[in-house]
Amino acid sequence: MRKIVIAGNWKMFKTQAESENFLRGFLPHLEETPSEREVILCPPFTDLSVMSKYLHGSRVNLGAQNVHWEENGAYTGEIAAPMLTEVGVRYVIIGHSERRQYFGETDETVNLRLKAAQKYGLTPILCVGETKQQRDAGETEKLISTQLEKDLVDVDQTNLIIAYEPIWAIGTGDTCEATEANRVIGLIRSQLTNPHVSIQYGGSVKPNNIDEIMAQPEIDGALVGGASLEADSFARIVNYQ
Ligand SMILES: O=C[C@H](O)COP(=O)(O)O
């Protein structure tokens, strides 16, 4: 059975005070949310502890935006899995295109992070997706297939979420057609050994397109950036029809 998973990736937005303010506005909307939908918020590291306390007893789970593969060590600027689990984090985004593009993330380091996350009981959300140039050159399928092949070496597919995020659709308002996202996600699924992995779509998901996206049979949820920063907007997405 594939789970529906809606996650908000706050990227480098929101102080602790702003995160609490968001939760005050957001949590009451969850009374309308069907219980089988998994709702996740992935704030900056500094918000995790305060949000964990605020969310105690609520159905919202916390995710981080990165994790290192070592348990500790001289890795300035990185974060280790036990530091995340200690403050109640259950999920972690790995291999987001912004990490790959700006911070030298490779399929090899993505693979190391995925295995470390699972070792410490975190559920990784692995991001894959093509650039505009790769899409225009007809390389989408090949690129994603290679990413999956390299990223998933020795990764446990029973504790994994995948997000298909076409890079050209991230933060641009240029959403991938729902039927096209459905097609690519079907291809991703055909490459997995576990048919029960939930696969999200990410890239300019908004209140006005979530219903169409979630109506697609292969799409099991959404990884939402900009539209997860406002309580009302993210609530509308979580409460899609
Ligand atoms: O992780 C989220 C994605 O990068 C999508 O961001 P966006 O919804 O702002 O396009």
From TrEMBL:
Subcellular localization, as worded in the UniProt entry: Cytoplasm
Coiled-coil segments on the chain, per record: none
GO MF annotation, one: triose-phosphate isomerase activity
Reactions catalysed: D-glyceraldehyde 3-phosphate = dihydroxyacetone phosphate
Annotated binding of substrate, by residue: 9-11, 171, 204, 225-226
Superkingdom of source: Bacteria
Family annotation (Pfam families): TIM
Database matches in SUPFAM superfamilies: Triosephosphate isomerase (TIM)
EC number assigned by the record: 5.3.1.1
Primary location recorded for the protein, binned into one broad class: cytoplasm
Pathway: Carbohydrate biosynthesis; gluconeogenesis; Carbohydrate degradation; glycolysis; D-glyceraldehyde 3-phosphate from glycerone phosphate: step 1/1
Residues at the active site: 96, 165
Keywords of this entry: Cytoplasm, Gluconeogenesis, Glycolysis, Isomerase
UniProt keyword annotation of Cytoplasm present: yes
PANTHER family recorded: TRIOSEPHOSPHATE ISOMERASE
Main function: Involved in the gluconeogenesis. Catalyzes stereospecifically the conversion of dihydroxyacetone phosphate (DHAP) to D-glyceraldehyde-3-phosphate (G3P).
Family listed: Belongs to the triosephosphate isomerase family.
NCBIfam families tied to this protein: tim (TIGR00419)
Quaternary structure and partners: Homodimer.
HAMAP family per the UniProt record, alphabetical: TIM_B (MF_00147_B)
The protein's name: Triosephosphate isomerase
Species for this entry: Sphaerospermopsis torques-reginae ITEP-024
Gene (UniProt): tpiA
